[in-house]
Amino acid sequence: MNEGVEWAAHVCVLLHWLQEEQAAPAPVPVARLAEAYELPAPYLVKQVQALTRAGITESVPGKNGGVRLARPADRITLMDVVAAIEGPDDAFACTEIRQRGMNQERPATEFAKPCGIAHAMRGAELAWRRELAATSILDLAAATPRNVANDARRHFARAT
Amino acid sequence: MNEGVEWAAHVCVLLHWLQEEQAAPAPVPVARLAEAYELPAPYLVKQVQALTRAGITESVPGKNGGVRLARPADRITLMDVVAAIEGPDDAFACTEIRQRGMNQERPATEFAKPCGIAHAMRGAELAWRRELAATSILDLAAATPRNVANDARRHFARAT
């Protein structure tokens, strides 16, 4: 899995911490988000762009621009973040090898039902997705000790 | 995910079909397994070697050599096959970016508990593994129409 998943999830939690006490969330420059976790800024920009394309963050242009969460943290799941970075496809891609070689003369109707292997892989994928969809960015933020969130807010309140 | 997972799972089901009515299972040349599903033999050899390293298949050398299942199909799970091909690692690798940058001065004790993000990703991985471990090669073989198994046996009974 792309290391950007870890980065993007932390960025969402951090943006929530910075925004949760603001009536009108101020956008945060991605360069400052990168510095906060010592991440390479050009690569983090790509991950944040993926979050924005997925409607998780929104980009504010201009001198005081940056990014902020596009919706409340309890409406962003870890599944949303993983799908934004990794794409929507299942990890397992069935290529229907069962229809080839010794089975190529069989009528197509025999393959109308999904292959048992693909069916089982799909079931496991759905179990994985259900788990990730059950955890929100708010859950993750709430599970972090309060002083970590407070220190992050103090860190970002300082001028660069 | 490596396409070898689909290949390896089908090979295990096929070996079960070929062996289930044999008192002493005859080894099957990997080249014939490759031909049965039109797979590139040199690449399938690599996947079958991975199955053998994992103790799922065993290799019989010599003129009439080949591979066969190393244990009964009800004792080989889809998880075993996936782990043999993909390796044992979780899809998500936490790199502890939470300890860097703005948090690098924090005492190590603050990071003794796993990060909430890594914890949630691990939970999803375990849900995925549980599902794959609940399906055996025997389950997959039993879910396939009987005539497909019979035709496969007839195909392999013919001389090459």
Automatic annotation (TrEMBL), chains A, B:
Entry protein name: RrF2 family transcriptional regulator
Species classification: Bacteria, Bacillati, Actinomycetota, Actinomycetes, Propionibacteriales
Organism encoding this protein: Nocardioides ginsengisoli
Cross-referenced InterPro entries: TR_Rrf2-type_CS (IPR030489), Tscrpt_reg_Rrf2 (IPR000944), WH-like_DNA-bd_sf (IPR036388), WH_DNA-bd_sf (IPR036390)
Gene3D superfamilies (alphabetical): Winged helix-like DNA-binding domain superfamily/Winged helix DNA-binding domain (1.10.10.10)
